[in-house]
Amino acid sequence: MIQLAVLDMAGTTVADDGLVEQAFTAAIGAQGIEPGTPEYERMIAHVRATMGESKITVFRALLNREDAAQEANKAFEDAYSNLIDGLKPIDGAEDAIRQLQDAGIKVCLTTGFSETTQHRILTALGWQTLADLTLCPAQAGRGRPYPDMVLKALLELKADSVANVAVAGDTAYDMTTGIRAGAGIVAGVLTGAHGKQQLDAAGATHVLESVRELPGLLLDRKLEK
Question: Which helix (H) or strand (E) holds 33?
Fold first, then answer.
């Protein structure tokens, strides 16, 4: 029986609409790298491939200097924060979360952003008290693709076993995180960064059109047990 659902935010429960790439463009521009240049195209390709990963980790890989990575990460967080007013939930995401909770399944919302940015997103959506737990990489140890946030949620919300955990996200890194954590269900959704082929290749046990379909999947499984 699934006792805990660990859900990604941007692209899974929160509509991204290109805001991550806009914020990245602003952040990398502060490093003197402009759109249209070969260096920018190389970097944006890496960003797209690693959607879901902790943002500071992405900048470390791209810039190879800790001071530059920290500066770019701060610029990214500032730029994203300035775009937050335009954020909207994925259609039906809030209802899906409440359906899971009404069925006795705890919900944790996770992100690769900083705690400050995560709090701003939740505030903008009015979701401060919606989930049973919210986590970012700094609160758990490491970000995706490591299993830390899923395992931290399991400990905090007292699921009986990793097999009783479902992970849902829109990126290959979300799938890798769920697999590494040993989650019983690792569901990809098609409302964000990566398509079915990438999600399947990363080990998704299910691929859904949207998080709206997650309660049906998990509650059917609950009834079967």
Answer: none
**Single-letter code of the amino acid located at 132:** D
Q: Which two tokens stand for residue 161?
A: 């076993």
Q: What is the tally of structural domains in the chain? A: 2
144-183 pLDDT, tens digit per residue, is 999 999 999 999 999 999 999 999 999 999 999 999 999 9
Q: Extract the tokens encoding 125.
A: 């959506």
This prediction has a pTM of: 0.86
Domain residues for the domain of 74 are 19-82
- 56 and 96 in a single domain? The answer is no
If one counts every other C-beta atom within 10 angstroms of the C-beta of residue 128, the result is 10
Cβ-based neighbour number of residue 86 at 10 Å: 11
Name the burial class of residue 220, with classes exposed (0-12), middle (13-18) and buried (19+) by CB atoms within 10 angstroms of its CB.
exposed
What tens digit of pLDDT does each residue of 87-108 get? 899 999 999 999 999 999 999 9
